[in-house]
Structures are given as C-alpha cells and as structure tokens.
C-alpha cells in the first residue's frame, strides 16, 4: 500500500489511478468543490473508492453546564465561530449534497453515515473545540467575543460537568467507480 498526502488546492495527484481516495473536512472549505470532486472521481481506478467526510452546520445542543451562563457562553462562542467560517467559503450544506454529486459523477454502491460524538469537558472532542477557538481567537475578538469569554470557554471545555451534542458532526459518504464492464449499466 502506498499513501499519498496531497494539497488538493494544487490539483489532483497525477500518479494515479488510485484504488482509494479519502478526504475529511476538505471540499466543504473550497470554492471549486464540485469540479474537484469530478477530478477525484476521474483519478480513481475502475472499482476504486472515493470517501469524503464533511460537516453539516447543526446547532450545538448543550446538555449540561456548570451554570446557565456557561451554557449561553458555549452557544455564543461556538455560534460566532460558525458564522466566521461561513463567511470564508465554508459550504455547510455540502455534507448532505455529496451523495447527489456522487450519483451525478457516476459512482455506484454509494453508502454513508453521520457520526456525532458527544463533547464532554476534558475529552478529546472538547479539547479539539478549545483548540479551534484558540486558533480563531483574533477573529472571534473582532466578532465581539471578549478575552474573558474566551478564557472562560477554555476552562469550560476542561470541566467534566459540560456536555453537548456539538455543531461538528461528520457525514461520511463513499462511492465506487464502476468497473469498465459496468459502465453504461
């Protein structure tokens, strides 16, 4: 097995065809996503599998927090982050459109599932959310979130009393390129 790591913004790798192409949370952020998907399908070998994981925009549902103010804070900070990413070409609807694009591209045996891990303060998912907020801090400040709110949010993501169904979900979609003998059927 050979594994390639590639920047799809530079185009599709030319050393194909490939038996498997996999990308997570990539095309939803790129403006030319539909054309790139067609290029990925073209790069598949007959019988090859394309697997995409993208995220739909779903509201965060706080299940438990140390206080009502903490629950409101979680909604405020996460909501500001989602609004920011929506302004920079993130297509939140893409996750649930991928299946239609797979059909249009001629892929077969299309399957999918949606995965949603609960975020509990201190777990890997909560620490990932905290990292995203840290990376976006300058933009969140411009959005009106205060440093104190961001600091409290980081503490909240480490507090085991915090639990939520997060905004980040993964919709995985897989489809197989037809074998040469299946084309046209």
Give structural notes.
With about 180 residues, the chain is α+β, with helices and mostly antiparallel strands. The chain has a single domain (about 10-180), classed as Rossmann fold (3-Layer(aba) Sandwich). Helix content is about 35%, strand content about 25%. The chain has six helices and seven strands. The strands form two sheets. A four-stranded mixed β-sheet has the order 1-2-7-4. Strand 1, helix 1 and strand 2 form a beta-alpha-beta unit. The longest helix has 20 residues, at about 70-85. This is Methyltransferase domain-containing protein.
Mean pLDDT: 91
User: Order of SSEs, N→C?
Assistant: EHEEHHEEHHHEE
Beta-strand residue percentage:
15-25%
Domains counted in the coordinates: how many?
Answer: 1
The CATH class turns out to be Alpha Beta
Number of helices: 6
Pfam families: Methyltransf_23
Organism: Flexivirga endophytica
Protein name: Methyltransferase domain-containing protein
């Amino acid at each position: 097995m050979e594994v390639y790591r590639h920047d799809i913004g530079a185009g599709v790798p030319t050393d194909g065809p490939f038996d498997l192409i996999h990308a997570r949370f990539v095309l939803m952020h790129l403006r030319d996503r539909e054309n790139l998907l067609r290029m990925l399908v073209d790069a598949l070998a007959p019988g090859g599998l394309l697997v995409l994981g993208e995220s739909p925009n779903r509201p965060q549902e706080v299940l438990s927090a140390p206080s009502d103010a903490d629950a409101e804070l979680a909604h405020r900070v996460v909501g500001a982050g989602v609004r920011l990413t929506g302004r920079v070409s993130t297509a939140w609807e893409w996750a649930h459109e991928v299946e239609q694009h797979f059909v249009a591209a001629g892929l077969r045996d299309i399957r999918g599932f949606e995965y949603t891990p609960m975020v509990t303060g201190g777990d890997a998912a909560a620490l990932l959310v905290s990292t995203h907020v840290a990376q976006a801090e300058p933009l969140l400040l411009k959005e009106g979130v205060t440093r104190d709110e961001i600091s409290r949010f980081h503490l909240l993501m480490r507090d085991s009393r915090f639990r939520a169904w997060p905004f980040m979900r993964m919709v995985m979609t897989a489809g197989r390129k037809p074998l040469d003998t299946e084309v046209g059927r």
